[in-house]
Amino acid sequence: MKKAREIFGSLFARIFISVLLGLVLISMAVSFTVLYMSRQVFTDTYGASQEKVFSRIEKELDDFHDDLQDMMTAIDSSWAFRLFLDSGEEMDNMERFRNIYQMEADLEAAKSSDMENMNILVLGANGRHYLSRTETISMTDDAIWESAPVRAAVDLPEVLHYQISHGGYTATAKGRDVVIISKALYYQETGEIYAVVLVTLTQDDMRRFYDYFITDYSSFYMTDNNGMVLCSDDRGTVGGKLNVPWQSYISDRDGERFITGDGTNLTILRRELTYQDCTIYGVIDNDKALGRLYNMPLLIFICVLISAIVLILVLFFTSRSMLPLSRLAGKMTKVQEGDFMEHMPVEGTSEVRNLAVTYNYMLDDIKSYIDELMNTQQEKRAAEIKALQMQINPHYIYNTLASIKWMVYAGDREKTIKMIDAFISLLRNTISNADEFITTRQEVENLNNYALINQMRYGDTVRVTFHVSDNCMDCLLPKMILQPFIENAFFHAFPSGRKGNIDIFMEESEGNLQIRIADDGIGMEQDRADMELNRDTKKEHFSGIGMHNVRDRLLLLYGDEAEVLISSVENKGTTVSIRLPAVREGQSDDVKTEAGGGKL
Amino acid sequence: MRKLLSVFLCLVLGAFMVSCAEDQVTGNEGGQAVTVDTGPIVVWTWNETFNVKAAKLAADKYKLSHPDADIIVETMEREEIMSGVKNMLSTGVYDRLPDIVMIEDYDAQDMLTLYQDEFVDLTDSIDRDKFADYKTKLGTMDGKMYGIPFDSGTAALFYRTDILEEAGYSSPALIDMTWEEFEEMSRTVHEKTGKYMLTLDPTDMPVVRIIMQSCGRWYVGSDGYTADIADNEPLKRSLDVYQNLIRNDGAKSVNGWNDFISAFQNGNVAGIITGCWIISDIKAVPEQSGLWRISNIPVFADMEECVSASNVGGSSWYVMKNSAHSGAAKDFAVEMFAKDDELTDTLIEEIGLIPAVKDPTIYSNYEAKDPFFQDQKVTKLLSNLADEIPAVNYGRRTYEIEDILEEEFQNVIESGNYDECLKKVEVKAAAVSK
């Protein structure tokens, strides 16, 4: 659940989803709009163009009708046919031979070129037949005279009659649905009918009139005045009453082009053929035609393909640009932890590269500022301490010199020289020696000199004893770090000539330099002892360094590794414990570096 | 994130493959429609009593061994088949092209010259040596055989013994006649019975062709395209025969095929000179059984090169290459018309087929006596005649030249100035036969 939210919460997923959604919406919207618009346009233009084709069918049927009319007239006015069909006296054989040829020639001349092989039967009232083709008549004369097309022609001899018949008069038309066009020939004066011309057309013959109109989605129907289908590419309807779903739609409408709207989208073309007394219909199934026009699977495939390509590109480029950003986020977390060394690699898009450069620049800046600040601080501290170290209390020097004068007066020469030696040594070590760190050995010497001078001045009621183990003789420790404690013990632990001992223990254990300064003086309450460490007194001190300075200094130099504790019991004495890391000559640089680079 | 991407890629790939698969499926469907012969084999032929019947019998027999086969035989007119097929082939519209068509021998070379590649090459499917040479030659182009020879057009004189007896002639008188004797006989028959010896059609002159071929001549020379008319003695004599028969009421003028057939079927004529394929139409009137006999055709007494045997009509089956069911049609045509001797035997009996083969004795009906023709051994008789038929090269323009001849003949039929007529015909014929 949480993972899902993480996935969908990421910028990456959001871009992905919105791009995908956008693409789907765009392709759907564009497709449907185009489909809808083009559907309208298509229905109109296709209908209009098919209407032109349809008009051509009408024209060809009219032309054909005219040709037939001409042919009928030619037969009617041919003397050869007249002689042949007349019921008059028998011709002699030679005349007949020539007459027959003349009939053929007359008919050939009257036929238009597209009627080349047409099945034309001329049936004379005198019982003679003329058949234009090399085949036989398969019906008796009586049956032919009784057939519907002949009767229709006899009833109304002036015009051509178009009828559908199952089976024609000749062998090739047997058992087929044929269109029979009939016309009676009659004497103008009497009106007596002397022959009937029967033109038989198979469905294939008819098809050449409308073949170019026919597609998978358009059909053609030709009906006579009774609504019987004469010919159609929809063979099932031929020979019966026109019975199609769209019929009701056009029955009560005038006009030549309709578009049905009720579920089916059909364009229906209609023409009344006045001469033929027939009607032709062209039906276009717009849905099917559109289906042919639009390859839906291809359309969908193209949409999906383009979407996929765009998505892959978007994902590729976002992931390329996102990568440095998430890396930056990781680096920044480290900066929070105080690591300023984490630079960002400069890569990715130009924006991200700028960001990386600026970030790195900023990081360097910050780091250099901090380094500088620390250096300044350190130098300042060092200077302070140095200043304190140098600050040997002038009173101490006066008083010590005064003591020496008194010793000279007392004539104790040996003692005086000893005192002066100690004083010189002390001054040299403190003032002249610029080193901050000295060995335990030197420190002990300094402290010895100091103790000696104090004993000379104030009498040797207080004994100072050093217990320094050999293992720590070379250990380094900051200069003048123990003096303030010894001074404190001298002047506060043994008031008014009280006798006592100050014991200084130094040893190295567990990598630390353990120093203990213990006196058996008057001691004090523990609370006061703790305060004592922080008190700044400037009365008669050897240097400006007080006990509070010592602690600060140790903390500055060693951090947590140094420790100063003071414990005191009233009338029993006071013990100061100092713990420092044990560092020897040669390691002193490290100490200094460590001290210098200490953490803030 | 990566996962999301990969899921998406899978979807895209999947969609792609599905659409490809769809394409393949539709492709297969499209392919199937073409390759699998499920629809009917369509055969176009003419003459209901003869070719159509033969094709239907063949179809029935073929269906016994191939229950799934569907064969439709459509009755057409000869010219209609020619013009229909030529139209479709010239426009390249194959969807309503028949699978098998019958082509008359006169038209064969014309068709093959124009559309050789549209017919199935049957050279390797047919035993060429089985069929008569003059037939295989007509259906062959560039050494490849396209036609399956069907009927022989052996010409013969068919006559009604009852009518001739009425006129005083007995059967032996009709054997090995000369044309002069025939003309004489015709006149006598009309005088005595009022009936005609035969029919002649001014728009179709098979007798001219019969006479020419019996003398080894044709409208064109042996090269097939040089008009051979002005100096064509047999042709000239044949026109003479026509004129005499018409003028002396020896032959009845009829118009068209229907009149020709109905004339003898109605018993109005005593004889027919035509190809032996007419037997089926003669037999179509059972009441006339036993009244007919068959004899060889007359010859000219003074022309030695002429024999008493000739040919008229006759046809072969051709399989269209680009029709919907060409493969199945080839199988049907070859199996039935080229290989099935049993079927041929049946056809000899049923429709009076005279097969155009070299050795007709292989058929059991070869020596069968036909009661319709007074127990004559019809097949044997006609087959023997066939052996003597002089071979001629029909060329490509038989009917076109004949049309010209018919037209010019009309002008001279009464005057008898044939030399003038034939000169005119030759000029025009030379123009069309080039």
- CATH top-level class of the largest domain in chain B: Alpha Beta
Instruction: State the separation between the terminal residues of chain A, measured CA to CA.
Output: 43 Å
Pick out the low-confidence regions of chain B: 14-37
Number of helices of chain A: 18
Q: What is the general shape of chain B?
A: globular
Query: Rough shape of chain A?
Result: rod-shaped
Strand order across the largest sheet of chain A: 2-1-5-4-3
Write down the overall mean pLDDT of chain A. 83
Total of DSSP H or I helical runs spanning 4+ residues of chain B: 16
Tally of individual domains of chain B: 2
Second CATH tier, the architecture of the largest domain in chain A? 2-Layer Sandwich
Q: What do we call the CATH homologous superfamily of the largest domain in chain A?
A: PAS domain
Q: Which strand order spans the largest sheet of chain B, edge to edge or round the barrel?
A: 2-1-3-12-6
Corresponding CATH superfamily of the largest domain in chain B: Periplasmic binding protein-like II
Keywords:
heterodimer, A: 600 residues, alpha+beta, Beta-Lactamase, Heat Shock Protein 90, 3 domains, five-stranded antiparallel β-sheet, 18 helices, 18 strands, 52% helix, disordered C terminus, B: 434 residues, alpha/beta, D-Maltodextrin-Binding Protein, domain 2, 2 domains, five-stranded mixed β-sheet, three-stranded antiparallel β-sheet, 16 helices, 12 strands, globular
Topology, element by element:
The complex is a heterodimer of chains A (600) and B (434).
Chain A: H1 2-9, H2 11-77, H3 79-85, H4 93-110, E1 119-124, E2 129-131, H5 141-146, H6 148-155, E3 161-166, E4 177-186, E5 193-202, H7 203-210, E6 218-223, E7 229-232, H8 247-251, E8 257-259, E9 266-273, E10 278-285, H9 286-293, H10 296-336, H11 350-390, H12 394-410, H13 413-432, E11 437-439, H14 440-458, E12 462-468, E13 475-478, H15 483-493, E14 500-509, E15 512-519, H16 526-532, H17 547-558, E16 563-569, E17 573-581, E18 583-584, H18 588-596
Parallel strand pairs in A: 12-14
Antiparallel strand pairs in A: 1-2, 1-5, 3-4, 4-5, 6-7, 6-10, 8-9, 9-10, 11-13, 13-18, 14-15, 15-17, 16-17
Helix pairs in contact in A: 2-4, 2-10, 3-4, 12-13, 13-14
Chain B: H1 2-35, E1 41-45, H2 48-65, E2 71-75, H3 78-91, E3 100-104, H4 105-115, H5 133-138, E4 140-141, E5 144-145, E6 147-149, E7 155-160, H6 161-166, H7 179-193, E8 198-200, H8 206-214, H9 233-247, E9 251-253, H10 256-265, E10 271-275, H11 279-283, E11 292-295, E12 315-319, H12 326-339, H13 341-351, H14 378-388, H15 398-412, H16 418-433
